[in-house]
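Database export, one record per block. Field names are fixed; values are copied verbatim from the stored entry.
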Amino acid sequence: MTATKTSPAAQSPTERHTPSVWDRWLLRPARKLWRELTSMRTALALLFLLAVAAIPGALLPQRGLNEGKTAQYIADRGQLGVWMDRVGLFDVFASGWFTAIYLLLFISLVGCITPRIWEFIQALRTKPVPAPRNLKRLPRHLTETVDGTPADIAERVSTNLRGWRTTTRVRDDGVVEVSAEKGYLRELGNLIFHVSLVALLVTIAVGKLFGYEGTRTLVAGDDQVLCNTSTAVYDSFRSGVMVDGTALSPFCITVDEFTATFLPNGQPEMYSSQVSYTTDLSAPEGSWNRETIKVNRPLRIAGDRIYVLGNGFAPTYTVTFPNGERRTQTAPYLPQDTATMLSDGAMRFDTPAGMYPDEDERRKHQIAIDGLFAPDPSYHGTLLLSNSAIVNHPAVAVRVYEGDTGLDTGRAQNVYMLDRDLIDQGRLVRKASVNLDLGQSATLPDGTVITFDGYKRWVSMQVSHDPAQNGVLISAVVMLLGLLMSLLVRRRRIWVRLTPAPAPADVDEDGVDGESGQRRTVVDVAGLARTDQAGWGEGFDEQARALLTDGGRAKVGRL
């Protein structure tokens, strides 16, 4: 038997183009995945998904904004709160799944826009399409017979269509066709919208990478100063991955006074903070600048924005020890109810040096205070309540403890509450529970006196640095303009076919009227709107006739 060899020409298409394993299992699925990812349908779905994914960030407390409130929210919901925390619902905008949606949307938009930009450029370089064979089948059509040659009328039509992209074609049979298009700004606006959306995503990402936010509680009228020189000066600080905290914008700020105004029904009307600040860290405090920070009106310093996030009361207590030495502290209390500003907090006072030579004995006589502050007090029995946030003879309800407050352990403690473990272990022993009005005192069995001296206001300041904020604003404005352009501009096409008039008995073979001596032309005008919203309206015939007259440009302006 003789073996035969089949030539390539005799092979079937399947035999000649059998895909390789590489092409079948990698290249083809990759191309299909890329086509799906870069489709407009996928981009819209990802944009909707991003909006839905951002909802938990608006409804749930976020750890970066208020860590204490977030921790309390998780504790109140037990195991459910723990699972919500594990999936990142309390740090939505820094979670992996939100970042994944963000990046997929960015890739989808870039892959979707790039070919459309090239197609738009090609369309601008291409002449308007020739007239269809049968213009009478288009939605808008008009046929007229007018005086003049096809060339003269074509020139007149082109003049009246100034501002349109027009082209004139002359066929071999003497028929002249004028094709015109307008509304390319609609597609340009569409592209501007999507390019601006990509720019918006990029600028937001840049802001997250190179920006930072820090919060610090300052007591108004106190000696507390916030100097933006290190991340350690903040109560909480979060930054982008490109920020290491060594190149912060240098400035110092202190709160001189805090003012709260209220409506007649007791609701807050405005919060104002009078501050002093400087960008010269060596300048004496008396030469600092003065400014007022209000709600939604931040102070801008050295490229940073400083906001007032929250406020509250900081009671002042004086502890007089048995040897006559005094310790005075002012500490912020956290509001339990923002409507009445009933607040709770804690303080710790160390024993004066030399009062107890033995270190262990000294540690056993430290003083701790926790309790409530009411700006407008009322009582339910002995229980202290607050009627409103307006200050009216403030009062406190305190529990006074004596013992080891944990100040010497070096371990971080919650500044707003005492360590329950120390109380449960008996290392802190309650010595008194009392309600005190302004100026009143309570005396412990060993002669220690606790005095409620008054209060100050504290303010939570947020320092925000976003180097891309101007880019975000510009991108958003341009995106809105592009959207308006794509919605308001109408895309239309119009064709005018000019045919020499047929020769009846009183018209010679050249189309010249025997009575008037003028040549006549049959004019077919047809219009097509690219979208239903760009319809021609009822005045198409009138506007189409205006194309054929001298000076008819003003009449066809609505085309």
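Remark 1: The mean pLDDT is 85.
Remark 2: Residues 96-125 form the longest helix (30 residues).
End of record.
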